[in-house]
Amino acid sequence: MKNAIIIFLLFTLCGQTYAQSIVDFFYSIPAEYLDNLSYVERKQLIEDKSLTKDDMVYHITYDSKNGYLKLEQSYTGGQSGFGIFEITYWRLRTKVLIALSSVMGSNGGTHQNDFKLFTYDNKEFDQVRFGYLKDYTSSFDVFVNNLISEFTYKNTPQKIKDDLKYMGFRIELPRKGRDVRISFNPINETYFNREYSKYLKYRSKTYRFDKAKELFDPEF
User: Quick one: which H or E segment has residue 142?
Assistant: First the structure.
């Protein structure tokens, strides 16, 4: 009987460890990566689906079943600038892997603003320093330069790589499924093709999540 109680408690604890939802992870991510929104402001967003703060307005949608959340930011005064924050997660054998991707844009186009990976393990929420996704490091500037280098030919000048960061380069998290897509989505295709296509090995790549390896493999 004692052993049965112990086993029951272990299963209960494990269930609590993995009971976290996409909303819980939204609350847990440090404010610096979510436009400095406080816990109270995020709570209000979940309850009301929108929030006005200073000259910014936020709208949120989320899919608890598929573990996906999208936060959109824009100006109240009608300026063209906007932001999009995506969050999703993958359950691993002993922890949960959470991704945050943020994109900023305007009428002139969009660009990747940040990308972070976190793990949740036994109620500890930690930022991943490196691993899981090829070339990933918690330093976004280094990571995005690594990615651009992966997409371009070997002798591509650094100035071209720096320009490409702002040519609709985006890391898209899955709304459904498990794979991450990274691609260029320039607003001016004619200009992009004329100035930059000759430097590119790829316009887009899908990084497929390998459940057995617990990491993302690029598909060419």
Answer: helix 140-151
The pLDDT score that the predictor gives to residue 122 is 77
Give pTM, 2 decimals.
0.88
Region 15-40 average pLDDT: 86
Cβ contact 217:208 at 8 Å = yes
φ and ψ at residue 52, rounded to 5 degrees: -110, 130
Distances (CA, A) of 156 to 64, 147, 149: 42, 13, 8
Question: What is the spatial distance between Cα 99 and Cα 171, in angstroms, rounded to a whole number?
Answer: 11
- The H or E element spanning position 16 is helix 2-17
Position of tokens 């794979």?
179
Mean predicted confidence (pLDDT) in 11-31 = 72
Each residue's pLDDT tens digit, 56-95: 999 999 999 999 999 999 998 877 899 999 999 999 999 9
- The answer to whether 170 and 182 have CB atoms below 8 angstroms apart is yes
How long a stretch of residues is the chain?
220
DSSP E strand stretches across 76-199: 82-91, 96-106, 109-121, 124-127, 169-172, 180-184
**How many C-beta atoms lie closer than 10 Å to residue 172's C-beta?**
18
Q: Is the distance from CB of 69 to CB of 22 less than 8 angstroms?
A: yes
CA distance 36 to 215: 29
As a whole number of angstroms, the distance between CA 148 and CA 48 comes to: 38
Q: What is the C-alpha separation between 16 and 52, in angstroms, rounded?
A: 34
Decide: 103 and 111 in contact? Cβ < 8 Å. yes
